[in-house]
From TrEMBL:
Residues 24-443 form the Enolpyruvate transferase domain. The modification 2-(S-cysteinyl)pyruvic acid O-phosphothioketal is found at residue 137. It is an enzyme of class 2 (transferase). It comes from the Bacteria. InterPro entries: Enolpyruvate_Tfrase_dom (IPR001986), Enolpyruvate_Tfrase_sf (IPR036968), MurA_subfamily (IPR050068), RNA3'P_cycl/enolpyr_Trfase_a/b (IPR013792), UDP_GlcNAc_COvinyl_MurA (IPR005750). Belongs to the EPSP synthase family. MurA subfamily. Keywords: Cell cycle, Cell division, Cell shape, Cell wall biogenesis/degradation, Cytoplasm, Peptidoglycan synthesis, Pyruvate, Transferase. Cell wall formation. Adds enolpyruvyl to UDP-N-acetylglucosamine. It is found in: Cytoplasm. Phosphoenolpyruvate binds at residues 39-40. Pathway: Cell wall biogenesis; peptidoglycan biosynthesis. This is UDP-N-acetylglucosamine 1-carboxyvinyltransferase. GO terms for molecular function: UDP-N-acetylglucosamine 1-carboxyvinyltransferase activity.
Amino acid sequence: MTLLHDTISADGRKEGAGEILSIRGGRPLTGRVEVKGAKNLVTKAMVAALLGESPSILRDVPDISDVAVVRSLLEVHGVRVQEADEPGSLMLDPRDVESAHMEEIDAHAGASRIPILFCGPLLHRLGQAFIPDLGGCRIGDRPIDFHLDALRKFGAVVDKLPTGIRLSAPAGLRGANIHLPYPSVGATEQVLLTAVRANGVTELRNAAIEPEIMDLIAVLQKMGAIISYEPNRVILIEGVDRLEGYDHRAVFDRNEAASWASAALATNGEIFVGGARQPEMLTFLNVLRKVGAGFEIREDGILFRRDGDLRPVTVETDVHPGFMTDWQQPLIVALTQAHGESIVHETVYENRFGFTDALVKMGADIVVHPHGLQGGPRRVPRRNLEQAAVINGPTPLHGADIVVPDLRGGYSHVIAALTAEGESTVRNVGIIRRGYEKFFDKLAAVGADFDVIG
Ligand code: EPU
């Protein structure tokens, strides 16, 4: 396996150059795809390897560009990364960790949001860290104030520079009492990765409890950390002096699984997602049941198809165990084919419906209400974010020339083009490889009719 992308996919398409797809839609997608380790765990577990005194092995690593970015950033810090004893596994050896040169770190600026999680591990290993300006999907402001506030509580000194953030810990890091203003996934991971080697106990309140975070806790426990999870989003971490490497198989990518499920519903096809598991997808499956999906849960994965006409639904995105914000974009494509009015409230990000412009161009009836709907009661008003999309269906979609805006929105564009009658040109498709492994191969495996034209 090479973690810097394959340039030619299994059926000979030029994947490396694949920025523009020509898609002929209107056919059901039917077949089987396999999902591997979750992007949102694997990249964090790779960072955790920095904390060990011995090498770690991570299994089921997907070949996606976010992994390549984190790998490269680990390598500039002296971590040796190579394929381990089975395909899709990585050995990460942190025994020669050293300060990287500023220019090398800077080369990663804007490429991903994961570098912010290097703070704690580098402070423990080297007493200092430099974090380049962050990238990631443009889906709102995406500030890092929770991260920096938490790091200061551990005793870190934070200097903001024009090119990034410099951190030091002159007196070492000590356990802290931290209450997050919101159960942020990244800030929870920041606290975990910093607290495990801090001096003393850390109590984290209002923590995120996504399955990927539970899996990161499992990784850290294998390394020697002592972490307990209490009711009501409280996590206790007892700092230890030394951590070793781990051997871990990553939890599956439930976001990718939900994406293919929505593709099956949108195109009236039938897709078996190998590696998908019920427990982590419970909330998604409840919504699919209401929408009229006929899923079948098997030992080795889940089969998704329609069970009659699709029905409209009202959903509100939320932190786990709520309906994930990353699931709404592909689901909305399926909801354009449901009979009636669906409503999707986005409460995690302030601006994550930009992708619907392209669907409207293709014939969908979607109206985005930036300030929410009058009188619509919110389930859990965790934040003052009210953006809502109202989708009226079913509407036939027709081909269009569209540009991918971000990872999940981009996947939705491709699925919309495959649902639409006629030919579409979808540009900027490279972004999708940040989070979907072997994307073109998988499209081909479910019978998508497309060419890579640029
Ligand atoms: N937030 C702040 N301040 C902070 C941190 C977060 O205000 O310091 C806000 C954000 O602006 C956002 C909300 O809190 O409105 C939630 O952000 P969170 O920190 O939970 O998200 P994240 O860690 O940046 C991860 C995933 C996202 C996923 C979210 C929510 C990774 C690399 N990214 O982002 O995944 O949508 O959690 O579950 O794990 C994706 O995979 O496409 C993706 C965007």
